[in-house]
Amino acid sequence: MLTKEIIKACEDVLIEELQPAMGCTEPIAIAYGASILGDVLGGYPEEITVGLSGNIIKNVKSVIVPSSGGMHGIESAVSAGIVARCPEKRLEVLTALKEDAKEKITEFMSFCKIAVNELISPCTFDLLLEGRLGEGRATVRISERHTNVVAVTKNGEDLTGKYKESGVIPAQSKADKSLLTVERIVEFAENCDLSRVEPYVKRQIDMNMAIAKEGLESYYGVAIGKLLYKDGNTDIIGKAKAFAAAGSDARMSGCELPVCIISGSGNQGITASVPVAVYAREMGVDEETLLKAVVVSDLITEHLKDGIGCLSAYCGAISAGCGSGAGISFLTGGRYYEIAHTVVNALAILSGTICDGAKPSCAAKIAMAVEAGIMGWEMAKSKRQFLSGDGIVTKGVENTIKNVGILAREGMSETDKKIISIMLGTATKNENQN
After folding, report:
1. Is the pLDDT of residue 288 over 80?
2. I need a surface site. Which of 53, 117, 220, 250 has the fewest CB within 10 A?
3. CA angle, 146 as apex, 39 and 353 as ends, to 5°?
């Protein structure tokens, strides 16, 4: 039974999580923090020290920073944020860059000393920027969430309050995600008044379909979406995979179109919404049903991700692929029974896929995650299902979801460290030393 508390929790999750961002969210969070740093110092810093948790380093290493003229990496993200210097735009901070941005970023990098270190922190998402301009010294710390500004100082003065409340969403989450279950999510989507969340969900669909179409029309990265699309000569499953992958192709390779994120991730925001929208278009489904189906997808994605954590060795696209399969099930009349089995089936297929950073190959992982979600739904509607005892599958969808959280959060923690050491080139050095 839906209560006011459950309805509020579902609405709060969607309103908080479905936010626009331009570019991969980890480098953009760095740019956002740098933009605050430049604003506090009142100009271009002469020195900057950047401390980042390993998972942020992993996700910044290979993606192109939008509006930078093709630059990538941590120093580029910091420099772009300094040049933009528009912290009120938060994860859209780089929309403030002008046509001469590349020249300004290059010039800034030529005189500013930028030192990057791994920040040893119990939090998987943690960044600390320290800068100097003349006699002025400032620090900015963002932790746990991409926009959660926890500390801003200048010459010892606490300025956190000025930046903590900027923007349209609270820095600290107010949504009670503990109230989410698959059964409640389906009941919420089926019965509640969606008027409060409709603008956010519709924006998600519009933004993410736009960048997916851009990815199919142009050539980004290795163009996984174009490869799968075959000029439209593919079935509905192929189109769902192609559109989602194309959105990631564009996003990972510097496209300046914004995306609507969920769980702090644009790739997950794309994966949770685009395949459902493609199915709705192909099936001629009305907009209200589409919105409700995407709500199911988004909330299940967030429900799965909540147990895993913000960043980990577990590929977040898998959670969103499960969500999209559930949303597609809802589109075709599936309700709790079918959706629960869709989620369990999809989790049984691809759980454990590693996250080795944001990069062009994410598009291929997204395609496979969407395929797993759809296969889970195809199995469920055919009354086929993985049963308790099949690997990590346990009786009851919520118990299986808990198992995935344990796998990702605890079981893959050492895997995460090893992935980061491989990406930083330290794994081989350590072996040689031994």
Report:
1. yes
2. 117
3. 150
Annotated domain spans of the chain: 24-164, 180-421
Q: Which fold has domain 180-421?
A: 2-methylcitrate dehydratase PrpD (1.10.4100)
Strand, coil or helix: what is 304? helix
CA dihedral 115, 120, 123, 127 (to 10 degrees): -10
The predicted model gives 225-231 an average pLDDT of 95
Model pLDDT, residue 426: 64
Span 24-164: which CATH code? 3.30.1330.90
Interhelix angle for 336-350 vs 287-308, to 10°? 50
How many Cβ atoms are within 10 Å of 424's Cβ, its own excluded?
14
pTM above 0.70, yes or no: yes
pLDDT mean over 67-76: 90
Rounded Cα–Cα distance for residues 304 and 180 (Å): 10
**Residue count (the chain):** 434
**Residues 6 or more apart whose Cβ sits within 8 Å of residue 8:** 176
